[in-house]
Design brief:
This is MFS transporter. Keywords: Membrane, Nitrate assimilation, Transmembrane, Transmembrane helix. It is found in: Membrane. InterPro entries: MFS (IPR011701), MFS_dom (IPR020846), MFS_trans_sf (IPR036259), NO3_transporter (IPR044772). Belongs to the major facilitator superfamily. Nitrate/nitrite porter (TC 2.A.1.8) family. With 435 residues, the protein is an all-alpha fold. It has 17 helices and no strands. The chain has helices at residues 15-34, 41-48, 52-80, 82-99, 106-116, 122-133, 139-170, 175-200, 209-214, 227-234, 237-268, 272-284, 289-304, 306-328, 333-357, 366-391, 394-414. The longest helix is centred in the middle third of the chain and has 32 residues, at 139-170.
Length: 435
Amino acid sequence: MNKANRIALFSLGTPQMRAFHLTWMAFFVCFFAWFACAPLMPLIKGEFNLSAGQIANINIAAVAVTILVRLVIGPMCDRFGPRKAYTGLLLAGAVPVIGVAFSQSYESFLFFRLLIGAVGASFVITQYHTSVMFAPNVVGTANAATAGWGNAGGGVAQAVMPLLVAALMMLGVSHGWGWRVALLVPGVLMLIMAALYWRYTQDCPEGNFDELRAAGVNIESGKKGGWASFRTAAGNYRVWMLFVTYGACFGVEIFIHNIAAIYYVDHFKLSFEAAGIAAASFGLLALFARALGGFISDKVAAAGGLNRRATLLFVMMLGEGLGLLWFAHAGSVAGAIVAMLCFGLFTHMACGATYALVPFIDRKALGGVAGIIGAGGNVGAVAAGFLMKGIGNTQQTLSMLGVLVTISALCAVAVRFTASDKSDGPVLADNKVAA
């Protein structure tokens, strides 16, 4: 059995399609849990009497630890396989997700929020697992679709968590207990997802890494696994160019998830529930926009090769930067939402286009490549958090981010492939298997 050369969307009959569906579901649950606190911040702010600086610290903490975990999780996938890595992350991540519901002070809330950031590394495993399951002609679409549908968990959290709190309050639960009970839901979902992932997935089309290695089968996706994969990836300049572009698209996406609801409440005086719905519209674009970015990347590559993928990414980054400037200067709620949807479309498509390039950077160090570039997204989010803390004004921060994103688009142009790299054409001869 080899890599699948098509996506049979409504099938669970092959390991490739089981991995496809379970990996986006696991990522959805992790993303939901990662950002479940964000739309509840207006309530939590009042509960702990948080200052603007403390809120900024919480937003930074939410994404900071993910940098380290993403760097580690990629090589771990090479060493132990994505099945074990994902199951372990889901089980470990559920602990702080449940723990944050029992916070009694700003300090304890900050601590658990920091630890919750580890579940953001789920993205790297998602991209890794689909990369080893699907052939070059569809891998961009597979990566982008699973990431996009998983990313939508952040948007769903923005809309569902306030409604869940409202429902609990209608049942007589107080404000103080409402958000705490609501935050138990994503933790329980993570435990359920861990059991499903362990039971129904395997590491690659041929089986699980440990069993294959025991049988003397060479695993293509890792140079002995672990840190050898990381070192190889770190020596490739294209990895660092995409590290920057991913910081500028996914980093901005995370930043918007963290500040959107409270920005609409403070800047446009929307209600708690209305702000959640407005913020959710940004995240829900991931349902199709990220997949669209990967799909277009596959199509332009089929017509003109790998370098066309990089050029497409450049165009999408420009659209994101200019749209972000528009959003920052919107003078009304309606204008802000329209601008957010426009720049959000380019942001999600740029994320999909970035990871449509990842499988072709170095196939023998896939875990290291995916981990470093994925960490770039969180570096961007942390940098945006510090920028907002330093400027002290969300609107000015958004304007500055728009300028920086536009400049960072040049890094996409710098990603070039040589003739020996350009194997991104028709399906490889040894990969002619449909899923």
